[in-house]
Amino acid sequence: MRFSLPSVLVMAGLAMAASSPALADNLIVNGGFETGDFTGWSGPTGSYTFVSDPGSTQVGVNSGNYAAVFGSVGSLAGISQTFSDVAGQLYTLSYFYASDGETPNEFQTLIDSVVVSDIQNDPAHDYQSYSFNFIGTGSDTVTFNGRNDPAYLGLDDVSVSTAATPEPSSLALLGTGVLSAVGAIRRRMLAA
């Protein structure tokens, strides 16, 4: 079977498109807290954990009108959400977090009771993006715990999505095969 250079390039493009990440819908309910409360979340545990009012000056918002605010004194207080997913699938938890810089403060992120981030005495910063990959078990839980004795920490735009990311070795093998095919076709065209 003979292939022309353009047809090989089209096939390579289709193969790469098929192997590129495909994001699923967000598995988190009310990840932006835009209901104005903790609908979809368990908690809050402890005190001084609430959803900010629009225009609040505690820590502001990353997007929309609301954000979760953590200001527990003396110990961590938090929220969690359990969601269904596909066992064995790779997922990404992402969110935006802000600190007003007042200390002592602490902000923890847990996936299925495993601490994946524990930020302590964080200096002041606007909302910054954080993300962590994990393998789904069929039912997983994300938990956020915060403490800021004199003031507040902010959380906004929480999401869990899946990405069908190919192995790097698979992409390298695909690229090598495409380059070999292009080279062979070019040599045949030059020889003809």
TrEMBL record:
Domain Ice-binding protein C-terminal: 164-188
Domain of life: Bacteria
SUPFAM superfamilies cross-referenced by the UniProt entry: Galactose-binding domain-like
InterPro entries membership: Galactose-bd-like_sf (IPR008979), Ice-binding_C (IPR013424)
Signal sequence bounds: 1-24
Pfam families for the chain: PEP-CTERM
Keyword Signal: yes
Key words, A-Z: Signal
Keyword Plastid part of the UniProt annotation: no
Protein name: PEP-CTERM sorting domain-containing protein
Lineage, top ranks: Bacteria, Pseudomonadati, Acidobacteriota, Terriglobia, Terriglobales
